[in-house]
């Protein structure tokens, strides 16, 4: 609870079960500066932008611009 209420922490990653072997990651960067986020790796799966599924799979570590939200979906490779 202390971490949640800490005004210096302005980043959040939420992993949601999308069913059928998929997970959705919501990356929130509330800071004004860009921040590196690292998503968990799982064998046989790859993270891709959820809003542009035709894009090539991304690395597990992403640079998220300040004051932005990114949605990533994990699919079987």
Secondary-structure blueprint of this entry?
Blueprint: H1 2-5, E1 11-19, E2 22-29, E3 35-38, E4 45-49, E5 61-64, E6 68-76
Antiparallel strand pairs: 1-2, 2-6, 3-5, 4-6
Keywords, separated by commas or semicolons:
mainly beta, two-stranded antiparallel ribbon, 77 residues, single chain
Question: How would you describe this structure to a colleague?
Answer:
- The chain has 77 residues and is mostly beta strands.
- It has 1 helix and 6 strands.
- It has a 4-stranded antiparallel beta sheet, with no helix packed on it.
- A hairpin with a 2-residue loop joins strand 1 and strand 2.
- The chain is globular.
- The termini are far apart.
